[in-house]
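Hello,

I think I submitted the iron/sulfur cluster job twice by accident. Can you confirm which output corresponds to this input? Input:
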Amino acid sequence: MLLVEKNAMTEEIEALVEQFGKQRSSLLKILHEIQKKHRHIPDFAQQEIARLLDIHPVEVYSVISFYAFLNTEPKGRNIVRVCQSITCDLQGKQAVCNAIEREIGCKFGETSKDKKFHLEFANCLGLCDISPAMAVNEKVYTNLTPEKAVQILNQVK
Amino acid sequence: MENKKSERSGKVLFTKYTRGESINKAVSMKRDDILLEIKESKLRGRGGAGFPTSTKWMLTAAARSEDKYVVCNADEGEPGTFKDRVLLLEYPELVFDGMVIAGYVIGAKEGIVYLRGEYEYMLFPLLDYIQGMRDDNLLGKNICGKEGFDFEISIRLGNGAYVCGEETALIESLEGHRGEARNRPPFPVTTGFMGKPTVVNNVETLACVAKIVEKGGEWFKQHGTDKSTGSKLFSISGDCKKPGVYELPWGTTINELLKIVEAENTKAVQVGGASGVCLNKTQFDRQLAYEDAATGGSIIIFNENRNMLHVLKNFMEFFVEESCGQCTPCRIGNTKLLEGVRMIESGNFTFAYINQLKELGKTMQVASKCGLGQSSPNPFISILDNFKDEILNKGNGGTNGR
Ligand SMILES: Cc1cc2nc3c(=O)[nH]c(=O)nc-3n(C[C@H](O)[C@H](O)[C@H](O)COP(=O)(O)O)c2cc1C
Ligand code: SF4
Ligand code: FES
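Support: Only one job matched these inputs. Its output is below.
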């Protein structure tokens, strides 16, 4: 990380601590915001959060490692999560995944070469009645077919 | 997502209701009288465990503390469950009014909705809705003109961990920790969020409260069965023509339900999501109720073409992934059960070993620290028992009947 980037990150975290309060219960709210903006929580950010909340950096890392939506390494600019739970599975999730892999050119669990997409599986998204379902970042898409899924990803910037 | 509110019909929840109606009524009542009304209704928690709501609230109301909290558990993560999604999107008036009433009864000033991260798309609509309540004095200070009754609601997002739906893991997560279940006792009713008395209720439970205050416990009790009062929202998915959320009276049989959703050639029905049990045809006359087939409302339907071993594998993979890993019976146990499923799949198993695994499952049911490990053996045991012929006998090792 460049020094200017570090300074910007520190300022960002200071603002979040200001907003949510300097207490342990703010930790996940802060992590959520950083994750959302940067699509991961870099080492430096972890240290700064720990310093500003007055907890050990290992604690911050330990919390991040627990939650599926938080990660310490950059993935891709857009995170695609296809539901792998039972109803989506029955309704044809595999064909959808195959089509996505072919079109994006990487496997589930991987990031595309241009870093535009990271593909992963999710557990039940609570959309089983309109399955198969997937999420692209915060947005959800339902009643997928292989073709529809690919079209949706093609429209993502 | 389509809003189907106009098409929904039911006897208790999917009915007409105007926002604020029961809050207005509640603030004119004594707290004890509201508690009695809820006791009269015999309402039990809709999140799965079925704990009597009035008991939970009485304990929290009786606890002495300056600060108390109401937590709405909207972490809905059980595979096959989506009823809370529909309530939050289409009936927020019931859910939030229920929360305000809970605050009034137990003496809390703060309510927190723990919304699963996967439902982030609801965040802004819900925040708008809450702002509307503030504008109407249904939140804030001196609510509905009741001197000294202040209550606020905030929303916290989860970060993709199923176990955080367990109430003590949820509280850990709210406090900024890993979502690992706590030892109980003490229970959240005395030692919850920030160590303060806390009521944790499911979205649907809170919605029921709003209707009970509006129409009375006696009215509520007229629906359902003796031990399971009121109605239930069922999340129905899988092999049927009309999947979706249905409000049905408790006591409905599986056969009746299959007819309603137009399911054909049904071979198996999973009751209660991945952590529930799987029933075969001989059990379709069973009633959905606390006294028979109890459920948080998830129903997954499988037709004759489905491979039940594949279904079981999907469930066990889920639990291996979602176990918080804190206690050994659950962490190791689920891995062993999944390994067993893979052995059957490859034809490389002995009946003696499968029976040992079923015994292991029974040990997990008693020795695990929280409900995840206590219930994750349910599909393993019930699918291997109820679909023994398909999985263990016809398969002859390797082919599994395919
Ligand atoms: C692994 C696990 C996940 C759970 N997930 C949820 C959930 O998503 N929503 C919920 O209301 N209850 C869930 N529960 C049950 C809660 O621990 C708790 O019993 C419930 O929120 C109490 O509310 P109720 O009495 O209104 O049902 C879960 C329990 C376990 C063990
Ligand atoms: S039963 Fe499983 S999920 Fe619950 S505390 Fe133990 S390891 Fe964690
Ligand atoms: S199983 Fe995929 S959304 Fe529920």
